[in-house]
Amino acid sequence: MTTDTIDSDRIVHAEILPGARAWSFIVRRGFALRLTDRHGGANCSALFYNANDKLERYNMADTLKAQHTACLTKGHVCYSDMGRILMSVVEDTCGWHDTISGVSNAALVRARYGEARYQEHRNAFHRDGRGLFLIELGKWGLGRKDLVANVNFFSKVTVDDAGAMHFVPGHSGPGAHVDLRAEMDTLVVLNTCPHPLDPAPAWSPRPVDLTLYRADPVSDDDLCRTSCPENGRGFANTAIYHCQY
Amino acid sequence: MNQTLTGLTESTRDPSDAVYDQVIPAGEPWLHELLRGQTLRILDLKGNQAVDTIFYSAADPAERYSAVDTIRDQGSIYLTTGSRLLSGDGNPMATIVADTCGRHDTLGGACAAESNQVRYALEKRPMHNCRDNYLLALAESDYDMGKRDLTSNINFFMNVPVTPEGRLTFEDGISEAGKYVELRAEMDLIVLVSNCPQLNNPCNAYNPTPVRMLIWDS
Taking CB atoms and an 8 Å limit, are A237 and B163 in contact across chains? Predict the structure, then answer.
């Protein structure tokens, strides 16, 4: 899949995840998930687990050091803590997805945006990234022990020479999308709360379109497999896991 | 941002007053409780030794050190004097009160048999590694803890910069023999350490070495 449009006969499901909401679902191996920033300025926080053994999960450090990167874009993969690949970034119009900033929590949201309780605001009440992750994780028997460092799709945080972190506003425009191909059956846990370093003073969480589609088979010259020798070994480990070598 | 990072800071604590003083050989784990108010010094005896460290709340080990919450809150990816180590629940677990190295890594994680395979060669799986240390130390402990408790860790004395373009690099160490870091516990802690046995990475000159642990009461 290298084009902006996905052939309709490949799409198995599509829905809109509104801003500051969460969802979790399993993407089977051989399928891919496109996240689309509908209006621009979205943040989509994500965690990944092996659907068949949720003790195996996305590992930020292993992902970064294997690929000598601090952010994700096309050609990168998301490693589990077992030397295998959960999902590959097979398409990306955004160029940089944050891996090092985590999610907001209730105290942060209250301090930045003020109190907005359900009592007064009904379903427009303020949710936070940590709370939404814990809700979704709870549905799969997971909890605080499983809340590891996450990816923040559509958000860019740079690090200067002194180590200071800088959120880049306006990074993701309307229609920006990133495609994640499952290399094993992967439990995907998402929430669309604003990025925890987004300085915008107004509470304005943005929706993300989710499109689940059948992916092309992984070729020998697949960009994610060949982007670095480490990824070739990661794909090999993942193939062994599936009794393919 | 709630912290002021002050960088290089020496300690006035006297080793002869320490209530605990042990050398950990290279490649071995260390699992120890640190009470609120106690101070732990990690002393790099030979230089550029990675000390892979995770903190847990002794009262509730599901509350543990979170790299992303810690670096976001202080606005910097490096730890040094003044850094407040936060749990995923957002609570201060420990504060760095002295540091003669000046920079400690938060992003490189702990080596594992599996990550060594990916990084170096599939044949590297049999080599000793930090996560093996972690798993054995937890399995042999009285804590009901295991792989699910292995999350992001600190690599004391390691230098893992991020470039403005988003590259993660492993640079030569900035520590040397005799450098140390001191942490004051802000809650009762379980401290899990692997004194890193990595032999594939030039970060420790391919030569893992011992470190010394000292604890002072408040």
Answer: no
